[in-house]
Amino acid sequence: MTAAVPSREGPAPVLRVEDLCVDYFTDAGRLRACDQVSFELGPGQRLGLVGESGSGKSTMALALMRMIKPPGKIAGRVFVGDDELTSMDDNAIRSARMRLIGMVPQAAMSALNPVIRIRAQIADVLQVHEPAMPDAQVKARIAEVLEAVELRPEVANLYPHELSGGMKQRVCIAIAVALRPKVIIADEPTSALDVIVQRQVMDTIGRLQREMNIAVILIGHDMGLMAQFVDRLSVMYAGKLAEIGPTGELFARPTHPYTHMLISSLPTLGKKGVFRGIPGITPSLLSLPSGCYFRTRCPYAMPICSEVTPAQQAHGTDHRSSCHLSNVEGGLTGRIAAEAASVPDARMGGFS
Amino acid sequence: MRLSYVAQRVLLLFATMWMAASVNFVLPRLATGRDPIRERIIAESARGGGATNIGINEMIAEYRVQFGLDEPLPKQYVTYLWNTLRFDLGKSLSNYPKTVIGLITEALPWTLGIVTFSTITSFTLGTIFGALIAWPRAPRVLSYTVPILLTFSAVPFYILGLILIYFFAFQLKWFPIGGGYPIGTIPSFSLAFMGKLAYHAILPSLSMILASTGGWALGMRGMMVTIQGEDYMNYAEAKGLPDSRIFFGYAVRNAMLPQTTGLALSLGYLVAGAGLVEVVFGYPGIGSLLGDAISKFDYTTIYGIVFFLIVSLGVVLFIIDLLYPLIDPRITYEQ
After folding, report:
1. ipTM exceeding 0.90, yes/no
2. Which of B135, B228, B231, B235 to mutate to test the interface with A (most CBs of A within 10 A)?
3. For residue A194, is it within any domain?
4. Both A309 and A188 in a single domain?
5. Does B330 contact chain A (CB < 8 Å)?
6. pLDDT of B189 strictly over 80
7. A209 and A2 in contact (C-beta within 8 Å)?
8. Read out DSSP for A115-176?
């Protein structure tokens, strides 16, 4: 509205990732599991992160909390507000975890310590990060966060094995919001739950996210879930950010063939026919193809794709992707239209 | 629920004891063609130089009556069970007329003393050591101790005992060669005598501690390594917990569970565990008693000790069973 607004999209981002790289030095050579990933996340924004298994989603999540273990190495910068995480000393990064960046773990079923009561597992986060908090307040906060995730306060007295999968996931969410961090990374928070519970858990995450104005990074494979839940969507392939942009725009006008194929692999009620997948598998990070990593599976690959690594290009204000097709007349949309015109049943290709 | 669980466990304990007693009863009687009384009397009379066999059959008959062997088997069995229930394990054959239970109660404190001490010490040392070896943030130097621990745990403790005796008792004369206390002193509860007891207990305890610490350490190390791959370990780190908290509250706490089971089992064998060590060191415990009984074919004492071992193992496991839910909440009293 006015010139006082600091950046193009409004308030300053709560999370800014710049050229984040994760390298593993193995006997077989260097392996880059996360390759120059950069993005920003505004306060209260929901960012989706999708990609196949092994595409580097969880590695990136761990790198954001600086939890990559040797022989892995992190490079690049991660800002939460004004705090830069990758250069912090060990004590500082420890106190940043859960306080600045919260995490809802991938395996909630086994993420809780089996021999300790729920109360103690929530309390230890509070006690470590807020040592001055009196016991009575810790107790009150535990009841409060349990209520926030729609669990009875008595759940605090139970052991993890006495809870259902959905309840365990809710406890993990309660722990993640207990200190009201600015960002929460939810790494496939619903992968082990059935659809009903999945929906309820996502509703809870969404409600808390709105109430507390926490930015959320939701990691997953489920494009349908993403379409419903996130404001912006990013697609990872072989450790690189293939495309990032507003969810609606990405679904309507994908500019990377991989994004397009992920979207068209979604079954829809309207279009019945043979289910269409993406042929091939993610390349091994130890033997990546030259040029664009996706070219071996890309139906639109051109000669230039094997020679030059595509640079990231902006499409509008908040939409970026790295594909050579962006420089071709008509872009990806043109190719798709041309293909649809020549082969009427291209959508029915099926698995190959 | 809890009461019925305890009742069930008590019943099981008695069933175990009954079965052990029955096996004890049946086993020697399966050895047909051998008559321990006849064999013994003939051996005794031969040793005495008596060439005549006059009266031997009468003597045998007399002893058979005394041991109750003239009764029909079912009656013998019932009498035997009743006696066992009253902890009357009969009279020793080689130390006649001492009772077996008397011999056991004489030997028991010796064994319990050194074995309890060595077991607890080696368990504590080994567990702490194993936990630290497996911890990535612990000093690297510790990992060099693994081969040493392995070596010690591979050497049986009675051989380790012989080596210790040779160097520290025979060559250096730092410690006594054997026995539970100096010959010529009378056991009492005086401080001076206690000091002598401890002095005599050092080598046998040391041989057991050296031999078993490695095993405990390796077991703990294995569990710690496994547990570090668990999701809750990663999550604990994501929670921003300090290292010490993750180490004790998460890693050690969970890795301890199988260790505790192991400790329970080895406490059950407490009475039997020191057998050969006691023989090597001439220590007046259950092991020496059993070794002595075996070498003298003292059937009643052998069976008495074996039965006693089974009962003590059963009792210890019973107690551990009741305590286990306290350390692992996933184990409950309910079925």
Report:
1. no
2. B235
3. yes
4. no
5. yes
6. no
7. no
8. TS-HHHHHHHHHHHH-TT--HHHHHHHHHHHHHHTT--GGGGGS-GGGS-HHHHHHHHHHHH
Residue A213 lies in a domain: yes
Please judge whether B327 and A65 are an interchain contact, meaning their C-beta atoms are less than 8 angstroms apart. no
Considering chain B, what is the average pLDDT of its residues?
82
Write out pLDDT tens, residues B199-258: 788 888 888 888 888 889 989 999 999 999 889 998 999 998 998 899 999 999 999 988
DSSP at B165: I
Q: Is the pLDDT of residue A6 over 70?
A: no
Between CA B194 and CA B266 the distance in angstroms is 26
In this structure, are residues A196 and A212 in contact, taking their beta carbons and an 8 Å threshold? Answer: no
3-class DSSP assignment, residue A225: helix
Binary contact (B239, A99; C-beta < 8 A): no
Which structural domain, as residue segments, surrounds residue A320? 250-343
All domains in chain B, ordered by first residue: 109-286 (1.10.3720.10)
With cut-offs at 50, 70 and 90, classify the pLDDT of residue A275: low
Q: Scan for tokens 């040029």, then name that residue.
A: A291
Mode of pairing for the β-strands spanning A46-50 and A232-237 = parallel
Instruction: Categorize the per-residue pLDDT at A344 as very low, low, confident or very high, splitting at 50, 70 and 90.
Output: low
DSSP for A89-122 reads -HHHHHHHBTTTEEEE-S-HHHHS-TTS-HHHHH
Read off the tokens for A220: 């997953």
Distance CA A348, CA B2 (A): 63
Query: Do residues A179 and A37 both lie within one domain?
Result: yes
Residues A48 and A169 in one domain: yes
pLDDT for A348 beyond 50: no
**For B231, which of A110, A159, A175 is closest by C-beta distance?**
A110
8 Å CB contact between A126 and A179? yes
How far is the alpha carbon of B135 from chain A, nearest alpha carbon, in Å? 14
